[in-house]
TrEMBL record:
<keyword id="KW-0378">Hydrolase</keyword>
<keyword id="KW-0460">Magnesium</keyword>
<feature type="binding site">
    <location>
        <position position="10"/>
    </location>
    <ligand>
        <name>Mg(2+)</name>
    </ligand>
</feature>
<dbReference type="InterPro" id="IPR006439">
    <property type="entry name" value="HAD-SF_hydro_IA"/>
</dbReference>
<feature type="active site" description="Nucleophile">
    <location>
        <position position="8"/>
    </location>
</feature>
<feature type="binding site">
    <location>
        <position position="8"/>
    </location>
    <ligand>
        <name>Mg(2+)</name>
    </ligand>
</feature>
<dbReference type="Pfam" id="PF00702">
    <property type="entry name" value="Hydrolase"/>
</dbReference>
<comment type="similarity">
    <text>Belongs to the HAD-like hydrolase superfamily. CbbY/CbbZ/Gph/YieH family.</text>
</comment>
<feature type="binding site">
    <location>
        <position position="166"/>
    </location>
    <ligand>
        <name>Mg(2+)</name>
    </ligand>
</feature>
<dbReference type="InterPro" id="IPR023214">
    <property type="entry name" value="HAD_sf"/>
</dbReference>
<comment type="pathway">
    <text>Organic acid metabolism; glycolate biosynthesis; glycolate from 2-phosphoglycolate: step 1/1.</text>
</comment>
<dbReference type="InterPro" id="IPR050155">
    <property type="entry name" value="HAD-like_hydrolase_sf"/>
</dbReference>
<keyword id="KW-0479">Metal-binding</keyword>
<keyword id="KW-0119">Carbohydrate metabolism</keyword>
<protein>
    <recommendedName>
        <fullName>Phosphoglycolate phosphatase</fullName>
        <ecNumber>3.1.3.18</ecNumber>
    </recommendedName>
</protein>
<dbReference type="InterPro" id="IPR036412">
    <property type="entry name" value="HAD-like_sf"/>
</dbReference>
<dbReference type="GO" id="GO:0008967">
    <property type="term" value="F:phosphoglycolate phosphatase activity"/>
</dbReference>
Amino acid sequence: MQPTAVFDLDGTLVDSVPDIHAALNRLMAAHGEPPFTLQEVVGFIGDGVPTLLARAFAARGREPDAAALPGFLVDYEASAAQHTRPFEGIPAVLEALKAAGWRMAVCTNKPVAAAHVVLDALDLSHYFAAVGGGDSFPVRKPDPAHLLATLQAAGGNPAHAVMIGDHHNDIAAARGAGVAPVFVAWGYGPLAAADGAPVAARPSELPALLAAATGPTSIR
């Protein structure tokens, strides 16, 4: 059966923090609050935009402003790929996996419209059979149903799939779905978030790790 590689987006395929940072600071300025550093914003990422904004407002001692979400999304999507770039080596890895016969998909807590904006702008969309965003289904990572629904949309099978990500949500979703996990060390999450999953130190290590993860002796 054709194997499926399911990738997280932010911190795994692309370095999107510069554009998220800029959009978040524009929102903070509109609310009369000082800007965040890039590293502070890294700590807010991984659980979807509503949580991103809630963490930002909480860091300024304010209650979450639900009314800020629609405007933030419009502003962010308009410039989501201004400074966002694939991590070095990622395009070559995607091409290698495609040549090796892998089906590929994206499972991200980022809103699906924003995910498509980024993937289209960076000419990566053609690699993926499906994109499951944080608002594509009733649940999002770490709920395994998010990963399973993305896999179904891509035509993949959990028993022959790998979830690749940089966040504890990716590892938890994979294990809950019965999918082999691979953690990437170049992303935004701490290495401890790998929680025993195989770790890729650089993108060039992914093809071998993915092949091992779907082999007959792989452990989920």
